[in-house]
Amino acid sequence: MTDSRYLKRTIVKEVIASSFLNEERTLRIYLPPGYNEVLSYPVVYCQDGEEFFNFGRIATYANQLILDEGVEPFIIVGIEVDVKKRTAEYAPFGDRHEAYVRCIMEEVIPFVEQKYRAREDDRILAGDSLGGSMSLHLSLLYPGEFPRIISLSGAYYGESQEIIARESDLSWLDTYMIVGLQEDEYETDHGTFDFVDLNRRTRDLLQDRGATVRYAEKEGKHLWGFWQKELPDALMYFLTH
Asked: DSSP letter string over 75-140?
């Protein structure tokens, strides 16, 4: 049974007005137990923020890791997305992609770092599927700003692989990649793809350019039921070394 201490979570909802997206964007912000304005904290920025909190149970896992596993307290920022606009914002070929990138860099992060005790040099990006590839693209656009990526079954389509292939030195990048073996024929809104193959190819591209890649394939489908169980290990990987 889940320890009741894990469920005592501080989650704040913030709404920012984005001039780049011409709309309001909701953030879910998890503050760790004992959050103290005198201290500073690592921050995990999540694409698909609502899903990471509701289906990934990331706040409950964070409490568990901090209270019982000795993990340094950290902040989580979940950036919510309108599912109808998700591909347009997350995919590098999407017509809202550039605006979304600017929203994160020029609106979301400055807001978080001004209002909360977030470390500017201690950021992790996390995402599932297209959110995983979005996180990696953002990292490549701003080298050194986000050197750590959690990629849960990343949707690394041809365009994404071409972007990675153009890089020469990714020795600064550390990526945690997981993909389910039952994702070899997954239907997306623009075709059916073998996510296992996409992730293997992306792993090789990253490693060939000097990136550190923690890679695993496990029994699992392209669903939060699979990713949720992998989140604690992914967080531990970056927050304990």
From this structure: EEEEE---GGGHHHHHSTTSTTHHHHHHHIIIIIHHHHHHHS-EEEEEEEEEEETHHHHHHHHHHH
Cα–Cα dist 59/75, whole Å: 9
Taking residues 42-70, report their average pLDDT: 95
Q: Over 50: is that where the pLDDT of 110 sits?
A: yes
* CA 240 to centroid of chain Cα atoms: 17
CA distances from 204 to 164, 165, 212 (A): 10, 10, 11
pLDDT of residue 191: 84
Kindly tell me if the per-residue pLDDT of 238 is higher than 70: yes
d(Cα 101, Cα 107) in Å, to the nearest integer? 10
**Confidence (pLDDT) at 187:** 86
Q: Which residue has the higher pLDDT, 194 or 4?
A: 194
How many whole angstroms from its chain centre is CA 14? 19
What range does the domain containing 36 cover?
Answer: 4-239
Question: Residue 152: CB partners within 8 Å, gap ≥ 6?
Answer: 126, 127, 128, 129, 131, 132, 178, 227, 230, 231, 234
How many distinct structural domains can be found in the chain?
1
Strand-strand pairing, 10-18 and 148-152 = unpaired
Residue 161: predicted pLDDT: 96
CATH number of the domain within which 123 lies: 3.40.50.1820
pLDDT at residue 7 greater than cutoff 90: no
Residues 199, 47, 111, CA angle at the centre, nearest 5°?
140
